[in-house]
Every structure is written in structure tokens, then in C-alpha cells.
Write a structure and sequence with these properties.
alpha/beta, Cobalt-precorrin-4 Transmethylase, domain 1, Rossmann fold, four-stranded parallel sheet, about 40% helix
Amino acid sequence: MKNKEIKILLSAPRGFCAGVERAIEIVEKALNKYGAPVYVRHEIVHNKFVVDDLKKKGAIFVEELEEIKDKTRPVIFSAHGVPKKVPLDAESYKMTYVDATCPLVSKVHREAENLHKAEYHLVLIGHQNHPEVIGTMGQLPKGSIDLIQNEEEARNYKFEQKKQLAFVTQTTLSVDDTKDIIQILKKRFPKIREPHKEDICYATTNRQMAVKNIAKNCDMFFVIGSRNSSNSVRLVEVAKKSGCMNSQLIHSQSEIPYDLIENSNTIGISSGASAPEILVENFISNLKKKFKVSIDEVEIIKEDVVFKVPKKLN
């Protein structure tokens, strides 16, 4: 097997985005400042490797504030954002909290609030039960925002209210799929108001563009990331749509399909915005044990976005 030569096209940009880097830094700085344990509501980012690493350092992950026995300890809200009720609950418990919501998700929250104040009825394009969707819908009173997940729901959406209609989107969606949903909504509701600037974040857009750029030249495509990471799952879909049907997610429980890789000449690799680069390096070093590997990193755009951590942690 070792003699088989394989070319790797390494997609760039890939991996951590600025929002994820900031969220992880917030947990680490909170541990330095307050000592362990520090509680985190929901996985800080959707990656088992990152979560396990922070657990070792003293972070305790919970789904709800009620689970926290010792309310004198600080709690951090995950990068995906939380419904309005959560900080209010933390205040009523007199808890110290740090909000690690990605600034680009916060931008969508503010947008939704402003549209609601301007008396628009809102539609959110996103995936049900994703924490970001729960957080965004939780910014507004019940009944003032509806979720649309796909083209069929867009076609069947009923809106007979007197108010005007506007939409916002989850930040980690497939750019192409979302475009199709938006087109349907605009055709059905010509006056629907759209965001001034697209809600899908720069990192999601760049990673999808980078995958599109190389997938058509690959026999197989691998995205390193977690199963519950929306942007990682979307990258697999983008690779398939862009011409590499043999695309799959490599998560913490995945077996590497060496037999299929042996029948390939060129494989593509990318990673989701919450996957650390070490996971990509580990994947490549496993391949090097079995094959002769050459690597070509294909970068389509340089990213230089940095988000500051909250002042209270400095």
C-alpha cells in the first residue's frame, strides 16, 4: 500500500474562524481569571477535541443554567448565541456570566430585534434545533418569527398578516441552498426585506468557496469536523454538489476508509470552522503511514479577521 502515490489538495482557508478562536480564548481566559471550575452553557463550539481539551483545563459543560449546582461560579455562553431569557436568568441567579456569542451571530440578533421594532414580521432561514437558531428566535417574542428550513417550506409558507415581511439567516448555511430559498421568498413576497449585508458569515462563505474550487478535481473529499457542526456538514454537501460525490465527514468516531483512498489518485481535505488544525495534521500523518503523499495547499483568500475578547477578562 505504501507505494501508492496520492495527491492531496488541501483547501484554504479551512478550520478555525475568528468567532471560534475568540470563544475558546474566552473560556481559557475565564479559567485563568476565576480558576476552575468555569461552567459553559452548551458546547462552546461544536468539536469534541476542543470540548475535551477545555474539560481537562477545568471547564464544565451544561445544557441549562439550572444544572449548575454552584451558582457562585462563572458561566460562559457558547459561540452560537443564546435566547434573551438566558442572560436574564443568570442575572436572577446573581451569576457572573461571559457571553462568547460570535459577533457575527450577535449582528443577526440585533438585526432581528431592529426589524421587529420596526414592526416587521420575521422569517429565519436555518435548521431547526440548531443552538444558533434557538438563540436567534429567542431574541423575539413568540409568534413574531417563523423558521424556514428548505425550498419546500419556502414555497408553502403562509403569511397573511398586515405587517411587512423581512428575513434573516443562520450564519453557517450553504450559500447556494440559501440563495435558492431566498429566490423563492422574493418571488412570492416581492416586498420582503433582506439584510443590508448577507448574514452567512465570511468564514462559512470562504470555506465553501475554497471547497468548490478543488472538489471537482478530487476522487474523494474529506471534511474534518463534528457531526453536530452545521458548517462542517454543509462543506460535505458543497463538495458533493461541486462534482465530488465521494465526499464524507471525518469525525471523532470515524474510521479512515484506506481501501477507498487506495483507489483514488487525488483527494481533497478541508475542515469545519470549529475543527482545530491538529486534527487535519493527524489525518494527513495517518495517510502518510500508508501512502506516498504529496500536498498542494490551494488558498483562494487570506483571512485576517480577529474578534476581541470581552474587557472583563483582560
